[in-house]
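User: Please predict the structure of the protein below. I'd like the answer in structure-token form so I can feed it into my own downstream comparison script.

Assistant: Understood. Taking the following sequence of 279 residues as input:
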Amino acid sequence: MKKDYLLSGELAALFDINKQTLLHYEKKGLIQPDFIDDNGYRYYSRQQYLTLEVITNLRKLDIPLESIHQYLLHKSPEQFTALIKHKVTEIQQQIEYLEYIKQTLNITAANTSSLSSVVTNKILLEYEPSKMIFLSMKIKNSQTLKERLNLIGSHNKTFFGKNSFKYIPTGWVIAKNDFFADAALKYSHCFFMFYSSSQQYSFTLPEGNYLTYNFIGTYNKQRKEITKKIQTFMVTNNLSIASDIYLLARKNHWVTDNYCNYISQLKFLVKQNNIQNKV
């Protein structure tokens, strides 16, 4: 009689699973041996072979054990079709997510490659279309470094989430009234820049003429020289600041540990002064 049955190890080997996995399925109620002899050996018949074929192939699709269990209890063509269609929907969602990751990685690679051609130490005036910017909660001057890191971390989690690749660097906002001031440097918010969104704390940077200045290193250590250079340029060209200032490290900690190798960028909207207001 026993010669017509398979032992647990023999049955498991036919489906390239180990004996422990088969016993786990048994504990979950998905399959049971045909009988257990006095010595504790489990024996499986043709029916258990067919059941394990269903289980192992559905597991190859990452269908949860609970879903498989429910299907085995209510087998029918309709239930099988529903199970498969549900998996097809999941796969489509995975494809869309992977396509999103692919696009963000391509953007990241392109942005990183473009660093070698960034023009530095030259003030540029360029027309730019409108963009969406995501702002953090307001930064207080009294906040400690720990509090600011918590603010940045929370902002990251809000917009990128647990499974999203963060492909956009964090920038800092300097209020336009503070940019040329002699007082200590103050940041009002941190931000990410996108092209569209409906997220909280977001608003549109209007289209218009933007002054852009790329430079090597960090802003803090060169602030006086940079603001003086920009102020001279604006007076010469009869311009005034029309927005807050957006500071971004384009080449940053992702690709270098040396602050001196950073490529930073200042950008803000400008407007032409009336001729009679020119100093």
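That's the full token string. The chain is about 40% helix and 20% strand.
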